Amino acid sequence: MKHKTLLILIYIFLPAVLISFIGCPGAKRDELEFYRSKVDSLRTLVNNFIIDYNRLKYESYLEKQPFLIVNLYQRYGQLFNQEDINLINNLLKLEQRPERIERLERLKVFIYEKIVEKQTAGIRDRIEIVKYYINYPSKIGNANYDELDRILSIETNQRKRKFLYNSNERFLTDLKNINLKLLKERKEIIIDSLHFKSYKQFASMIRQEDLDKFYQTVQNFISSTNDFYFQQLYEFLRLKRLSQDRPFAYDLPFLNGDPKLSKFFKGDSIKNIFTKTYHNTGFFIDSLSNLKINYLSQSKKKSKELDQLKTSGFEILIPNENYLYINQSDGCENYDAIFSESAKLFPSVFTKENLFEFNYLGGDVIPLTFKNLFSNLMDESEFLSSNIFKSNRLTSEFLKLRSFKKLYTVRKLCADFIVEYLFIDSIQTNPDSLLQIYSSILGYNISSGDKMRLFSTINDYYQEAELLNSIFIEAMMKTKIRDKYGVKWYNTPQLKDYLLKFIERGRFLTKDKFLVEIGYYDLDPRFFFNEIISMKEKSKTIRQR
Fold this sequence. Notes:
Distance between the termini: 102 Å
Number of strands: 5
Shape: globular
Helix content: 55-70%
Mean pLDDT: 92
Number of helices: 26
Strand content: under 5%
Largest sheet: 3 strands, mixed
Radius of gyration: 26 Å
Oligomer: single chain
Strand order of the largest sheet: 3-5-4
């Protein structure tokens, strides 16, 4: 009788007890489906915005106009606000599956970034307009803001380099002031409206990076490469007959350039080398239905060279609509560009991911890594001998120059990151001190032109971290590729199957997961430095043949 009474009590009270602990399953399910439906609608709007954003950027390129975004944000006036964040947070409280949570977190990060961009779009557009009106007259035509280093690299007269570097003072001063205003307003939005503790905390979320730890990684890289870098710097100063005591910022691009070598990269050979190289790796890139390749005709007038469209790739609608424009002008920079811009599109072109967040969101470390892998074909002596140079001497000279140029480029990215890191969170705000830090990393004397250029460009949320990560990871990945396929890995059709294991997943892999999948557990910049040293040593060996 007692047992029967106990069973009756359990039968009566157990449902109430369970409901008090876990809630009503039906109500929770209804709430979950309600928020999923709301977020799906939000996701559709964000997807449409990204496609329109990509198309606007593409059309601006074709029309040779600045990429302006104010009107686009006005069209999507109800999108990107705190209510969108609250909606996602409500669903995050209910979701349990890791994949669904990961998708929501990526969507939330993207919306946070666009909330800030939307509210400061007018200032950002002013920067693009000022850049558009900056031009530098040169022997190969009028160069725009982004092409100054290119024309400095071919200008043999130091006085003319100085003149070019110091020109456009009014525009550059405006650019610096607008950039600082943009930074100030973004910090206020991030801290006062979005309630983050600091700009750096917000940027760490955007970049999915511990920026304090990364700062130490960058500092260690600078320290470990100092001796080699300055040895190379002084060697090229001697070769170019410049004073070791008096190099200036406008001299460094000249040290990194050599028109006599660059002329061997023939524009009329681009199409053949481009397609043949990809065919050799198993990628028949010229027969893909979702990648339209446009070969731009080579200019016959040198004065118009800089008026042509640059080699550029565009993803519009992943995976169905992608474009690649290839400039067929002479020059090593253009060869670099055709491989980097094409390979950067691989995760968009070859993806088999069906989920929006894993194709569009999550950062650019994956596409940038493949961009670096194929642009760094120019590091390979056998590739150069087969396609570009017909003598060991020329191959040797090019590798020697490229070794220095690549290390300089990476140290410059490190300098950008360090100065922004110190300045933005007010660790060091004195312009003279920041200039001294910057110039000491690259090894030049400060001039008046440097002061007006300080902060004429400020990358969004320490973008240098993403660029540096992709450079270091590429060197680590290439070590594994060489172990697997040998030094002529770029002549191996089986390479395609190996790379597709990563490329077909779009942007699904985070930096840390990507490292694990290629066989590592942490980022190690020493692999990149070893590539630089190896290139220099290879140059010596080839020279002695």
